[in-house]
Each structure stands twice: as structure tokens, then as C-alpha cells.
Amino acid sequence: xxxxxxxxxxxxxxxxxxxxxxxxGFDARQKIAAQAPGWSTAMWGSYAEMGLLAIATPSEHGGxxxxxxxxxxxxxxxxxxxxxxxxxxxAVLSATALAxxxxxxxxxxxxxxxxxxxxxxxxxxxxxxxxxxxxxLRASRAGQGWQLSGRKCAVLHAAAADALIVxxxxxxxxxxxxxxLVQADAVGLARxxxxxxxxxxxxxxxxxxxxxxxxxxPSRATRDVIRRTLDVGVxxxxxxxxxxxxxxxxxxxxxxxxxxxxxxxxxxxxxxxHRCAEMLVAxxxxxAMAWLAAIAVDAPDSAExxxxxxxAKLLVGHHGRWVGEQVIQLHGGIGMTDEYAVxxxxxxxxxxxxxxxxxxxxxxxxxxx
Length: 369
Description:
Blueprint: H1 7-23, H2 26-34, H3 41-50, H4 68-81, H5 87-100, H6 104-116, E1 121-124, E2 138-142, E3 145-156, E4 163-170, E5 177-183, E6 189-195, E7 201-216, H7 220-258, E8 260-261, E9 264-265, H8 270-298, H9 305-331, H10 341-354, H11 359-368
């Protein structure tokens, strides 16, 4: 795969960029974030109309058979606009996980609805104190069905989901990890919602014999589906962080060009111009790493997909945090205000750096391979 957009991907990029410019300016975004449910159902409908919700869905279920390369321009545009909608949780993570499962009846029912914007899922996998590749939540037989007991933490946009895709160990845990579907209003499911520092919602979940539908039984294939879901999510996060970095740098260069000190614009200061140049180099490096992550998920049989994804998330997270801190410094006090967008870029970069494995987790992943 070459590291540039195809004609179709460029058209998609242009379409998403126009949508964000027309309807998702910072003031509009802040109004969306401040009102329940914290994201826009109207924008969600627009994403569906453009086919954005169908990118990660197989064509046999009404999707576009897209991968990392198709998600990359969308996530970059979303990062630049700091979108609030549950796109990563539902259209990326959940759609990828559900598409890989073996329960054809559920897939045939839900994937077309998710692609059309009529149904949303959240991917509940991470647990406190448990490695990202593992789970300790338990699944047990209950008549002809299953019940789940245990906890999941910081499930992104669980409050917006109609159902949850949940990883759990079946039986006494020795049988391995399986995937289940749990309705959001299921008896025995308790949800504690909270707001992340970037104004998106997340939830801690408590399962107490909550009824569940088996999507895929314990097997190596199930672990592969979970791993691929996390990998696609990592690639999407890398792309979103690149978009956020570009948005932050654009704001900063405009600010330096218009803000005057002693009668001269700040951009006349050579040291500040050099700082912006350093940030641009870091962003270009991160964009190359985002492409590397997209290539790794689109060609999983490449030489080192696991290491490439870990390298990408590590470097994009590192440079993203640095760029976010630098733009705050160059803006001064105004960069810390809630009414100004540049501080929100740092918040989004910080959250994304910690999602699906922070820098320490990626280092551990590199050492393990």
C-alpha cells in the first residue's frame, strides 16, 4: 500500500472536511458537548447519509468493506473538529468486532442497522488491573443462554449504546475468552457514567448475572477478533490524533501571525517560528506512523503488524502530547481557557494517548514481540 489517498479516499476526505467546516465549528461543537446527550444525533444521521458509519462493515451486511486506509481521512477530519459522536465506539470498534464474530443471525440483524445509523454499540473489553489482551469478567450458562458477572472500566460512549459487545471468560475461566452481546437495558447491568477531560462520555459497568447472547465462543479465533478490533481502534486513534495536532498547529500559526507585541506580530520571532517548524516535523512524522498503522491493519500478514501498531501508537502518543503542550505555551494564558479551542486539542490528545494502551503499554507490547 502506498502512503497516499486514492481518488475515492480523497473524495471522502473532501466530503468529510466540508461537513466539518460547515456544521462543526468549535462554537457548534461546544454547544453539542454542553447539552444532553453530549453528542449530536443530527450529525450522526449525516454520517450515515455519507456512508461513514458503514466503512468498517462488510458489504454483505450493507457496508463498504473499508479498512484503515478508508478510516484514516475520516478520523483525521474528526480529530481536527474534536467530534463528540460515538464514532470510534460504534462504527469502528463495535462494527469491527461484530463483523468478525460467528453469530450470523445477530450480524445480519445488527450490522445493517449500525451502518444505517439506527443502532449503536459500545465495545466493553478493558478492565482495571488486567492486561489489554486479557479479561477476567466471567460468563456462565443460564438455561439455554448465558449470564455475565464482573466489571468493565471506562467503556467509551456506553451511555449512547443500544447494546454492548463484551469480552468474558466462560465457565471457570479455563475455557478461554468469548464475545457476548448484552442489551443496554439488561437486568443485572449497572452503569456509572462520567465525562472524560475531552468532554466525551465513558462508563464503568457492573455485570451481576446480566443476560447475554453468545457472539463467538472461546477459541483462538475469538482472541484474533479481539486483537484485530483493538488494532483497528489503534489505527483510528493515531489518525484522529494527527488531525487534532494539525488543527492545533493551524490555530497556533494564525495566532502568532495576528497577535502583536511591541508593535510586531509574534511570528516575527525566529525562536517561535522554529518551534512551529519543529511541531510540523513531529506532525509529519506522526502522519507517516498513522499510515503505517493503517497498513498494518489492512495487511495483517505483513512482516511486523504487531510491532508497527505499537510503534505508531507510542510515537503518535508521545509527539501528540508534546505538540499539545507546545501550542498551549505559545498561546499563553488564553490557551488554558475553556472558551478557546487549543486547550481542547491537548485534552483530546491526552485521552487518546491513554485509550487502547498508553505509551507504557505500547513499550511492553514492543518488548513482547
